[in-house]
Structure formats: structure tokens, C-alpha cells
Write a structure and sequence with these properties.
This protein is an alpha/beta fold. Helices cover about 40% and strands about 15% of the residues.
Length: about 300
């Protein structure tokens, strides 16, 4: 019997949040959405939606009374400020906190002082300190790249224009999981309360390389001629870090840092063979599934 019945989610309206919310509702948890401003009709009527002040421990504590677990899917810009939410969770007696992270190499110590990653390490350290003091438990979910983002934009390949920018030689591996399955994995964490206590868990539906995806595309549509250029991940990362150090944290700069690390293969651990897929109920994609995914983007 799971110890978790009531779950609060912060960041339910972002890219990942709606998928996590749906998974929690489908699993019959009592769900509370924490939001800065309530908008009529945004969420299902079965969900309790509460306006909160995310800068106030008192405001959040009042809402979190009776909540068993808090799932954070807040945007990257808000990751560092999750300490307020953690403090409120502790004050309210919440049992489990899942911070917003959901990446591929976010737990690699080499990245602990790097822009984008540094706030994640500070939050992990803060959670570990609170857990050691017996105040609450935590779980960090590593899920690789989001499949929808990898295929939906020109990251793996530019399917619409039949072009590709390959990182290094295009053979670097990256783990990936779909947004709905990230939601499912979070439900798996809550259902396996003891096995996921104070630890990092990993899920991955598939390990991809750009060359692998290109070969599938070429086999499906041999008449298409692809234009491929190559860049070094080290150069992309260097450029992104220089721009960030000059105060530029725009999305293009963020993407350079993310791709320069997560697409660098073994350098920063953007892929991982060992997973908790079985524990968390995640099925891996078959070769046929991957072909269908590529075909859908070629259509």
C-alpha cells in the first residue's frame, strides 16, 4: 500500500507539467495544483487549484497541510528558488519532494558549477541536508532528453528542411523519454515509496544517435537528399558559456549549453544503459516504434 495519497504539483502549466498532472489524476491521486493565478477552465474540475505566493513559506505551508508529496515541474528559471517550496513542504509535514530537473546529465559532478546546472546541484544538496536531518525524503528523476523536443525541432534532424547539424560525428548517444512517460515515471516513484527514497532514479525509452536516426530516415525515404553539417560539442559549449558569462541567458544560449553537454556522449554522461524502467513501469521503444516515430516526422 502506497504511503502517498495526496499530491501537490508546482509548474503544472509548463511543457512537462500537464503530462505529470494527467498521470497523477489517472493514477487516482488527490491532486492539488499550486499556481500564481487561477484561470477558469485551465484544469479539470477533479483537480483542486489553489493560488499561492511562491515566495512565501507561510502561504505555501498553509496549502501543503495534509499533502503527502510535492512534485515540482517549474521552469528552469525557477529551479533555484525551490528552497522556499521545500521549506514549506517540511513545515507542512510532506513526506516526499521531487524537484524540477528531468534531464540527461544533470547529476554529473563535472557540471555542478556550470550555468543552468548549478541551481539543480544546490537544490539536490539542500534536499540531501534536509533528508539527513530527517525532515523529509526526496527523489530526483533523470529521464534524458524529451522525445517530443528531440524530434519536434531541428535538434536531431531538421525533418522539414532535410538538414542536420551533427554534434561531433553524429555518433554520440543520448537517452530519451517521452513527456507522458516522464509523468508515468513520477507515478512509479510515488507508488514505490521505499525503493525510491533519497535517491536518483533513471528512465529511458530509447538511446539515440543522430546517425542512427538519419539511417532510418534514409531507408524510409531514399529519394530525400540530406544536407549535413558538423559542429564540435566542445565548441558549442564554449560559445554558450562565454555568452552566459557576459550575462546573456536567452534561449539560444541555454540551448548551446544544454546541447553542448547532453549531446557530448560519454563526456558528461548524456546517455545511460542502466535504468529503473522496470521499477517505474516504463517500456522501451522497439526498433519498429522508432521507425514509426521517424516516419511520422517525415510525413
Amino acid at each position: 500500500m502506497s504511503e502517498i495519497k495526496a499530491v501537490a504539483i508546482a509548474g503544472a502549466s509548463g511543457s512537462l507539467g500537464p503530462h505529470v498532472l494527467k498521470a497523477l489524476v489517472d493514477a487516482n491521486y488527490q491532486v492539488t495544483v499550486l499556481t500564481r493565478s487561477k484561470k477558469p477552465g485551465t484544469y479539470d474540475s477533479s483537480v483542486n487549484v489553489v493560488e499561492v505566493d511562491f515566495t512565501s513559506v507561510e502561504s505555501l505551508t498553509a496549502v501543503l497541510k495534509g499533502i503527502d508529496a510535492v512534485v515540482s515541474t517549474v521552469a528552469a528559471t525557477a529551479i533555484g528558488s525551490q528552497t522556499v517550496l521545500i521549506d514549506a513542504a517540511i513545515a507542512a509535514g510532506v513526506k516526499r519532494f521531487i524537484p524540477s530537473e528531468y534531464g540527461s546529465c544533470t547529476t554529473n559532478p563535472k557540471l555542478k558549477d556550470m550555468p543552468i546546472y548549478a541551481p539543480m546541484f544546490k537544490i539536490k544538496q539542500y534536499l540531501q541536508e534536509q533528508a539527513q536531518a530527517g525532515k523529509l525524503t526526496w527523489t530526483v528523476l533523470v529521464c534524458g532528453g524529451f522525445l517530443e523536443f528531440l524530434f519536434g525541432g531541428p535538434i536531431l534532424l531538421d525533418f522539414g528542411n532535410h538538414k542536420g547539424t551533427f554534434y561531433d560525428e553524429g555518433d554520440n548517444k543520448i537517452s530519451a523519454t517521452s513527456l507522458p512517460n516522464v509523468g508515468k515515471a513520477i507515478v512509479g516513484i510515488l507508488k514505490n515509496f521505499g525503493a525510491t527514497k533519497n535517491t536518483i532514479v533513471r528512465v529511458s525509452e530509447v538511446i539515440l544517435t543522430q546517425n542512427q536516426v538519419l539511417k532510418i530516415a534514409e531507408a524510409l525515404r531514399p529519394e530525400i537528399k540530406w544536407q549535413i553539417t558538423k559542429v564540435q560539442t566542445s565548441a558549442v559549449l564554449k560559445e554558450g558559456l562565454e555568452e552566459a558569462s557576459a550575462g546573456d541567458f536567452s534561449m539560444p544560449v541555454v540551448m548551446k549549453i544544454l546541447t553542448g553537454t547532453s549531446f557530448s556522449g560519454e563526456t558528461y554522461g548524456g546517455f545511460y544503459e542502466e535504468t529503473d524502467n522496470e521499477l517505474l513501469g516504463i517500456k522501451e521503444l522497439t526498433e519498429e516504434d522508432l521507425k514509426k516515430l521517424v516516419a511520422g516526422n517525415l510525413a
